Amino acid sequence: MINTILILMVIAALLLIVVILVQNPKGGGLSSEFGGGASSQMFGVQKTGDILEKLTWGFFTFIVVGALFTGLFLKAPAEGTAVNSALDVESAQTAPATTAPTLPLPSTPAPTVPAQ
Question: Which of 10, 36, 38, 95 has a CA that sits 20 to 30 A from residue 24's CA?
Answer without folding.
Answer: 10
